[in-house]
Amino acid sequence: WYLEKVKRKQWVPNQSVSTFHNVEKEVCRQVYLFTLQPRDIEEFRACNTHLQTAPDSLFVTKSICSLQTTNGVRALVGWKLTEMKYNYKDNMDLVEIRILADEEMEKTLREKFNITLDKKFVPINTSRLSLF
Questions:
Q1: What is the model's pTM?
Q2: From CA 16, how far away is CA 96, in angstroms rounded?
Q3: Own/partner pairs for 64-71, CB < 8 Å, 24+ apart?
Q4: Which of 2, 51, 87, 123 gives the lowest tally of CB atoms within 10 Å of its CB?
């Protein structure tokens, strides 16, 4: 079994910051692939450990914060903030992407994600301009 997502067209006003692959080409993609076979949590332990500890894992190399909203989604990966507004106009999603300055991080976490930090935020990012 699989779950497919049919994408609306996307409008990305600041294309120079975008690193999306196939923004216009990808119309439909598989989101989940699964069977009806029962699984035990132990079957996922090795993969979960790898994602949390491997030096090349996105979850180790970048700070990640995401939030689903009623009309879209926000994601902060490293210094890259992506905001998508679903069905912005004419069955098209608006995708806004920008690279934040260090001094914008705490304010962005507070205002966009409702997160207030006790200590200064130090993003983890092996590359300032990422492909994610």
A1: 0.75
A2: 11
A3: 65/109, 65/113, 65/115, 67/112, 67/113
A4: 2
What is the predicted pLDDT for the residue at 10? 85
53/94 Cα distance (integer angstroms): 34
What does the DSSP 8-state code read for residue 121? -
Q: Which residues of the chain have pLDDT under 50?
A: 21-22, 126, 128-132
Q: How far apart are CA 110 and CA 41, in angstroms?
A: 34
Contact by Cβ (8 Å): 52, 64: no
Query: In whole angstroms, what is the distance from residue 40 CA to residue 16 CA?
Result: 45
24 vs 93: CA distance, rounded Å: 12
Instruction: Name residues whose C-beta falls within 8 Å of residue 37's C-beta, 6 or more positions apart in sequence.
Output: none
